[in-house]
Design brief:
This protein has about 110 residues and is mainly α. About 90% of the residues lie in helices and about 0% in strands. It has a domain of about 45 residues. The longest helix has about 40 residues.
Length: about 110
Amino acid sequence: MSNAATRSRAPLWLRAVNKLERTIGEPLESALHSDPYFDLVTDVLRLRSRAGRTLEAGSRRLLHLVNLPAGSDIRRMREQLGRVERRLAELSKELEDSENGRGARAELGGA
């Protein structure tokens, strides 16, 4: 069966959607693969990042004015707490290994 015969048997709504997709999709796809589009996306992302940093700096100053911690302060405290927890785990493991070693020597010496 040919494509024309298959298309003519397709429901009307499907034919309309396919035609609309071809009409809109092809120009849109070519626009989205163009250099100006990628330049625009880059500029928008750069602007968004700059605006975010500006807003964060302003809110940080405002929060510090009223003696409240900012998000960056909380982030630094979490990082510091993570380092302390890792070090505590290392020390606990060393202590456990040391105690196990002493217990094994005592058993060997007593036997």
